[in-house]
């Protein structure tokens, strides 16, 4: 029969093939890591195309841009040049909103605010409401609002939970924040989802059209969907319930962002006619690695038990390494990688180093640099978080959407042009009184009472300059960026500066120009400014990932989802870090931390090393660390336990695995006194250890100059 003979299906197992060929009706692919879920999705798309389904009816949703790129790459090889829409939920929603903006009270040219920008608006909202934040922080308020949005609780429906201390504040400030966002014609990341979910709910005709348009929908990593995302795919799969989702409840790691495991656990209830496919064979990892993963995840109580097996070889033992200090940890890993690269055993790209929070990467970066091993830190946001990049983009944002208050506040006096705080406050007052955007208020500078003539002139000049830049709105983006750099004096200021830092800024702006010209090349015919801005605000944390380049990959465990590498190191497996200290008294959070380590472990194909250090810098001090309780859950007798030198010869710093001392290094004498250099090198490292939510960590300022492009990722197939 046709199906059985197609080369497209040859490389699949029976179970995988069953999933690929099930096109009509709901489908749930429930399977552990490395079992081919993502592979099934790509083959399924190719199979649908081969069966004559038009590309435009297919929608494949992923969680990161990188995952989408990877999928596109794999599909390109199976079925070249097909216009199947693949992308993240956020991108999909941004696209929907462009078409239906006015239905939710936005303008078509709305801006997407990143965390920084939305914080500015939140601050204005707090000021307007006259709220005093002595007992809480803007971060906490922002998180509460975000949580509400992910659960589709809109501003008018928000009710504080009893005993929830900041609830009362959120109740006041959330509506004001939304009002200001709409006035700026702007959305935050969560709004993208919420607006679309509500749009689909309140406009049956639009819902019906889109359901008809996207008849075949696939969601990879469905275990990480939150209520808003769930509502969207559900709404698009009513008349045509051809919804296929893949997921692994054991890999659900976004509970902190509102992901709801019940979405996958209850899929069978939502779609009674669902076909369920279970894939049990792992094709990625050795038996040793899979066994360790299995032993760990068994400690979670809230899970359906499932067996993982592989026909892959037994492979090397998983290694568990103890180091006296984080510095030894970093140096030894770097030396080992350098050794394997120099002896030709592996290439840099075969290695990945994972950590719980970005702050942990610095020392390893340093060690890799010393060994002259190329590496990349997967954290695309960093580039766009740089001050100079954000400044220039803010000018572009204003050209595209003159109502954008956050953009205006950002650059009204950058570079400095004599518009002081009190002038800005006066403009804000006018904007508030008349409920108009700041730029409109600024246009009235000449008539604002109490404003010094000099200030009014400075503001008028600023407005005139913006209008001048606005005349270039439809020019190619590269030209527009160049124009902004010149007209605003931004380039000149940096060029005249003696500071090394400013030279680095100039280099980054060059990088932005490069990105703009690449964008122009990809989008001939102009009219690209809005798209360019959208692209740069939706860069996800994994976007700087270039798997073509031969570099060691460093990333957080969260970013590692869905990927695979021949050799993996997971560092800093210590109490308070992994599991994170926030999960200490919360069994559910602890289980999520365990799943996070499980995700990390199951990325490894051949070699896996888990490490921890007995002393780690904490707020500028060497502090004793405690091995992660998760390490205690692993079958250590089946692992290779290593001391200070990772097993190559017996260096004097070698530490035997001694359970008691590992468990409570505080009781130890300072056997390995902290080195002075450590203190110097490490001082700032843990400054931000208190705000360890991955999203916040993404904003850490980078030391390295990063490449800008998001390379197409070579497929794992
Ligand atoms: P994760 O849960 O980690 O996202 P996954 O279930 O999506 O994993 P894939 O990434 O699709 O797994 O597959 C893991 C690896 O196994 C890939 O390298 C893939 O090419 C390979 N693989 C999957 N199925 C097969 C198969 N039938 N034959 C050969 N290789 C396969
Ligand atoms: Mg996958």
Automatic annotation (TrEMBL):
Keyword annotations: ATP-binding, DNA-binding, Helicase, Hydrolase, Isomerase, Nucleotide-binding
A GO-annotated cellular component: cytosol
Reactions catalysed according to its record: Couples ATP hydrolysis with the unwinding of duplex DNA by translocating in the 3'-5' direction; ATP + H2O = ADP + phosphate + H(+)
GO molecular function: 3'-5' DNA helicase activity; ATP binding; ATP hydrolysis activity; DNA binding
TM helices/strands, residue ranges: none
Record-listed ATP binding positions: 31-38
Domain UvrD-like helicase ATP-binding: start-end pairs: 10-286
Domain called UvrD-like helicase C-terminal: residue spans: 287-562
Family in the record: Belongs to the helicase family. UvrD subfamily.
Descriptive protein name: DNA 3'-5' helicase
């Amino acid at each position: 029969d046709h199906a059985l003979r197609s080369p497209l299906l040859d490389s699949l197992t029976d179970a995988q093939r069953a999933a690929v060929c099930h096109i009509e009706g709901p489908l749930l692919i429930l399977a552990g890591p490395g079992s081919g879920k993502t592979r099934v999705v790509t083959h399924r798309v190719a199979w649908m195309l081969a069966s004559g389904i038009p590309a435009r009816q297919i929608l494949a949703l992923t969680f990161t841009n990188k995952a989408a790129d990877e999928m596109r790459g794999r599909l390109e090889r199976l079925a070249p040049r097909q216009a199947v829409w693949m992308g993240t939920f956020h991108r999909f929603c941004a696209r929907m909103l462009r078409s239906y903006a006015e239905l939710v009270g936005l303008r078509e040219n709305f801006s997407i605010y990143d965390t920084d920008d939305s914080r500015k608006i939140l601050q204005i909202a707090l000021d307007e409401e006259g709220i005093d934040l002595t007992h809480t922080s803007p971060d906490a308020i922002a998180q509460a609002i975000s949580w509400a949005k992910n659960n589709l609780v809109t501003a008018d429906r928000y009710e504080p939970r009893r005993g929830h201390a900041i609830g009362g504040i959120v109740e006041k400030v959330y509506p004001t924040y939304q009002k200001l966002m709409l006035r700026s014609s702007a959305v935050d990341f969560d709004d993208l989802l919420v607006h679309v979910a509500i749009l689909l709910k309140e406009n049956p005709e639009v819902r019906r059209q889109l359901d008809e348009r996207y008849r075949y929908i696939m969601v990879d990593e469905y275990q990480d969907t939150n209520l808003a995302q769930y509502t969207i795919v559900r709404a698009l799969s009513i008349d045509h319930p051809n919804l296929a989702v893949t997921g692994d409840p054991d890999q659900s790691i976004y509970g902190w962002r509102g992901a709801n495991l019940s979405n996958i656990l209850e899929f069978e209830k939502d779609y009674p006619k669902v076909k369920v496919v279970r894939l049990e064979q792992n094709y990625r990892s050795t038996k040793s690695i899979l066994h360790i993963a299995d032993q760990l995840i068994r400690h979670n109580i809230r899970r359906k038990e499932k067996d993982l097996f592989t026909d892959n070889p037994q492979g090397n033992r998983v290694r568990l390494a103890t180091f006296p200090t984080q510095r030894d940890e970093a140096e030894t890993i770097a030396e080992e990688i350098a050794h394997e690269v120099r002896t030709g055993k592996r290439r840099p790209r075969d290695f990945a180093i994972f950590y719980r929070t970005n702050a942990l990467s610095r020392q390893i970066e340093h060690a890799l640099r010393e060994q002259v091993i190329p590496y990349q830190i997967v954290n695309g946001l960093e580039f766009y978080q740089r001050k100079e990049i954000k400044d220039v983009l803010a000018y572009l944002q204003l050209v595209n959407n003159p109502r954008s208050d956050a953009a205006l506040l950002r650059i009204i006096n950058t570079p400095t042009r004599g518009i002081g705080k009190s002038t800005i406050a006066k403009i804000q007052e006018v904007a508030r009184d008349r409920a108009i955007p700041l730029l409109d208020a600024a246009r009235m500078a000449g008539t604002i009472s109490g404003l010094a003539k000099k200030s009014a002139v400075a503001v008028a000049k600023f407005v005139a300059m913006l209008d001048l830049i606005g005349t270039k709105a439809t020019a190619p983006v590269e030209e527009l960026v160049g124009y902004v750099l010149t007209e605003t004096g931004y380039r000149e200021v940096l060029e005249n500066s003696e500071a090394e830092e400013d030279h680095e800024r100039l280099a980054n702006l060059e990088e932005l120009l490069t990105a703009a010209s690449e964008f122009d090349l990809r989008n001939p015919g102009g009219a690209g400014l809005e798209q360019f801005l959208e692209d740069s605000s939706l860069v996800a944390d994994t976007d700087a990932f270039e798997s073509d380049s031969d570099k060691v990959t460093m990333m957080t465990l969260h970013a590692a989802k869905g990927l695979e590498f021949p050799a993996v190191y997971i560092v800093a497996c210590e109490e308070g870090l992994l599991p994170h200290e926030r999960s200490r008294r919360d069994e559910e959070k602890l289980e999520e931390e365990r799943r996070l380590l499980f995700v990390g472990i199951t990325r490894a194909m051949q070699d896996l090393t888990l490490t921890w250090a007995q002393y780690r810098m904490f707020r500028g001090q060497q502090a004793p660390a405690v091995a992660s309780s998760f390490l205690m859950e692993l079958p250590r007798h089946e692992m290779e336990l290593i001391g200070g030198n990772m097993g190559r010869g017996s260096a004097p710093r070698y530490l035997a695995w001694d359970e008691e001392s590992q468990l409570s290094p505080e009781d130890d004498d300072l056997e390995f006194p902290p080195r002075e250099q450590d203190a110097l090198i490490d001082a700032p490292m843990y400054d931000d250890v208190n705000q360890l939510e991955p999203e916040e960590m993404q904003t850490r300022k980078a030391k390295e100059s990063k490449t800008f492009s998001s390379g197409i990722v070579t497929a794992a197939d």
